[in-house]
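Run log, item B.
One chain of 199 residues. Sequence copied directly from the ordering sheet:
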Amino acid sequence: MICSVFQRPTGPAMEARVKGIVFNLLAEVVQSEHGEDTWDALLDAAHADGSYTSLGNYPDEELARLIAAASAALQTPADTIVRWFGRRALPLLAERYPGFFVAHTSTRSFLLTLNDIIHKEVRKLYPGADVPVFEFDTSSPEILVMGYRSPRRLCALAEGFIEGAAAHYGEQVTLEQPICMNRGDAKCLLKVSLTVAST
């Protein structure tokens, strides 16, 4: 769902845009775990003013600068920051949009509705949102295989989202990514293995 709130480039400039809800979630996650001063420092480092409306559209580059600033401040790889963001943002999305989650009792069931149900509703909530299409291989009951293609190559965000969903449904998840656009492949392939979390 987080991956869904990007604006598809249109018009002469063809500038990719990010929906403001992404920035709102990032601010909430950073402030919750690292404090308001850290968020303010990231905004300063990224030369961003921090005024985001959930339905507004903002340049891709602004989000990239914030991720880079967080990576530098925390001395953590950018992909790790993005994955952490996805994982921590999922509970906030579950609070905001419980209807996407309550119909499911497992991560697998939830993930399989991304294309046909959740992304359709995301388009209603955020007109113009650039919604990725996932490919699913459900031939194995133990492993869900998800194909992902996006010019942004934000597979780390998808991974974080899946981890957050697993936590929401009380499951443990193991992710493997044998091919990845960031390694030169045509698409990313995520192998998702889920088990009930031990108590």
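Observations after the first pass:
- Residues 78-96 form the longest helix (19 residues).
- Confidence is low (pLDDT under 50) at residues 1-14.
Flagged for discussion on Thursday.
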